[in-house]
Specification:
about 180 residues, six-stranded mixed beta sheet, 4 helices, about 20% strand
Length: about 180
């Protein structure tokens, strides 16, 4: 296994540990005043996931985890693009390890397509070595077949460099499906 693949495997292990560490249901669905049911809020989930990943990675991991890095105005990446997470060495395009987009299990078809296109661009233009589409749930819903199929079809074009990651709910282990 080369160094890059080994670093990616370490990151996936940290991501898995992070998902197991997310035990509070409010990070998955946020209670809202005057509403009977809590709602999925991607940002709330992502901020806690970031915290848990940083704890799992520690300070010795050779890459940085950054959230919502705005690529607008980047000299090598045209247009506006803001991935949910990047795992990279800032300032070194050849050290862009992974890019991650996150969506709740209730994502609609258009939003999913938009994020898959974002991953496509980041793999091509920003030279990320891997991309993950992470779908999370509240522990009560399964991964919809149409979402799974769409991401699997997309990942086939990239021969293992695009992964579908499924986080079924609080305290659950991350599952890499592709």
């Amino acid at each position: 296994m080369d160094e890059l693949a080994a670093d990616f495997e370490l990151f996936i292990q940290a991501l898995t540990t992070a998902c197991i560490g997310m035990n509070d249901p409010h990070y998955f669905q946020l209670p809202v005043a005057n509403m009977d049911e809590p709602v999925f809020r991607e940002r709330v989930y992502c901020y806690e996931l970031y915290h848990q990943i940083r704890k799992a990675l520690g300070d010795d991991f050779p890459y940085k985890l950054d959230g919502e890095v705005d690529k607008n105005g980047h000299p090598l990446i045209p247009g506006e693009i803001k991935p949910d997470f990047v795992v990279h060495v800032p300032g070194k395009m050849e050290r862009n390890l992974a890019v991650i987009e996150v969506k709740p299990v209730t994502v609609d078809k258009e939003e999913l397509e938009k994020d898959l296109n974002k991953l496509k661009r980041l793999l091509a233009e920003s030279k990320y070595h891997w991309a993950l589409m992470l779908i999370y749930s509240d522990g009560k819903r399964d991964l919809p077949t149409e979402i799974k199929s769409k991401i699997i079809d997309f990942s086939r074009m990239y021969k293992g460099y695009v992964l579908l990651a499924w986080h079924a709910g609080r305290g659950q282990r991350l599952k890499i499906i592709t």
